[in-house]
Amino acid sequence: MDRPRVSRILSDGQPGEPVEISGWVRTRRDSKDGFSFVELNDGSCMANLQLVIDSSVPGYAETIKNVTTGSSIKITGEIKESPGKKQRVEVHASTLELIGTADVESYPLQKKRHSFEFLREIAHLRPRTNTFGAIARVRNAASAAIHNFFQERGFLYVHTPVITTSDCEGAGEMFQVTTLLHDDKPPKSLDYTEDFFGKRASLTVSGQLEAEIYATSVGECYTFGPTFRAENSNTTRHLAEFWMIEPEMPFYELPQNMQLAEDFVRSVIKMVLEKCPDDMQFFNDRIDKTVLETLKNITENEFLRVSYTDAIEILEQSGKKWEYPVSWGQDLQSEHERFLTEQHFKQPIILFDYPRTIKPFYMRCNDDNKTVRAMDVLVPRIGEIIGGSQREERYDVLLDRMKEQDLNPDEYWWYLELRKFGSVPHSGFGLGFERLILLLTGMQNIRDVIPFPRTPKNAEF
Ligand code: 4AD
Ligand code: MG
Questions:
Q1: Are both 83 and 174 inside the same structural domain?
Q2: Do 380 and 246 fall within a single domain?
Q3: pTM
């Protein structure tokens, strides 16, 4: 039998119904007339369940003083219509069991607002707060929505490896995986043939290359897994460990890829809004008053397609002073991306056809020999949320690109072979899951939308 949860009682519990419920105490208020009100939360929804515990409940006198904020209790009782305005129903207890105490002096989550910085230091307790409970539920709903979106379209979910020997993005930002280092065996010069995998291995920065293998065999597919980047950027948009969703589609060229990315983002947002109305209202009321409006703007407007070259011209003519100067051939920084989507176009945009020198080896070269078929989806408040491209399917061009970027083609022999045997045009993209959660919740810092953030100098919990 399902364990009874607060969300169920609040949504369709009927007066007169007997219930048993357990959870964590948010607050307790003792009335002069010999009973206590307890606000109980079990994480199943934003709202607390109001319990009325009368002094006639067995053990009340000894127990109630320990029913403090943070303690865990179990009660049995009966649902009653609530006379209060805040809730439809409440529960009148007939038994009370204190399960775990929480010392009033040392429990860190007292009933006041705590800063997000402080809450990061107590990541083992922060999901008990309204904000982090809501984020956990929105992450869950977004994950389900993502699987739904692809499953409904017949995409296969493929599991790509976490440990890999190739650097997909070619940026050298990989965490190494080795068994060569032991305290009793100081490294002289590491001989990777002696290492666990017999060659230098790392945590993956992307499942794309393996997804391409499956896309060109079983068809439309997607990955949804953890990815790792050892980029030492202490920003509010970067994590060393984050989750990425990477669809890969055979026979798609860039325009279809862009269309899928647009449909995907809009559809996932809609599904989360439907699934988590209370949590989304909370984010709009308490975290960022523009969240719902921003999301509405995204779901109701088509994403504009703008070429990189046009974007550079807009940025150059904006009259703005940039921290990073703009010129054709330079990568766009977050200040540029946010200007374009927030101030200039005021809606999501998809930039495409970037200079080949700033993009990875696998992107398809355009006939101008200067640009590649890259696309980035930019949304207000975040900047880049998706990066993708059409892939280079021509063997010789791909080989040249690898050499151009100082990659050793021998290490990518299997990737090259896909271009020898039945090569087809194909495309895909990667959505940063935590960036999507930033967008959905209005939270400011990416460290607060993943349960246990990994960032430079931080891997606690
Ligand atoms: O643009 P990126 O680097 O693209 C790829 O990895 C491709 N292999 C994807 C593909 O075509 N299959 O990363 C994709 C997205 C970014 O747009 C961003 O949302 C997110 O991943 N991302 C990060 N999120 C959090 N922390 C980081 N350090 C991130 N780096 C990228
Ligand atoms: Mg990118």
A1: no
A2: yes
A3: 0.96
CB 225 near ligand 1, within 6 Å: no
- Which tokens hold the place of 202? 């790392």
Q: Angle CA(36)–CA(4)–CA(7) in degrees, nearest 5? A: 75
* 93 lies in the same domain as 130: no
Residue 94's domain comprises 6-100
179, 298: one domain: yes
Distance 358 CA to ligand 1 centre (A): 15
pLDDT digits (tens, 9 = 90+) for 21-52: 999 999 999 999 999 999 999 999 999 999 99
**Nearest residue (CA) to ligand 1, atom 7:** 430
168 lines ligand 1 (CB under 6 A): yes
What's the 355 CA to ligand 1 centre distance in angstroms?
18
Measured CA to CA, the distance from residue 67 to residue 27 in angstroms comes to: 9
Q: Which residues surround ligand 2, an ion (CB under 5 A)?
A: 387
Looking at residue 68, which CATH number applies to its domain?
2.40.50.140
For the stretch 334-338, contacts whose Cβ atoms lie closer than 8 Å and that sit 24 or more positions apart, written own/partner, are 334/235, 334/237, 334/383, 334/384, 336/311, 337/376, 337/378, 337/383, 337/384, 338/378, 338/380, 338/381, 338/382, 338/383
Task: Supply the DSSP symbol for 358.
Answer: G
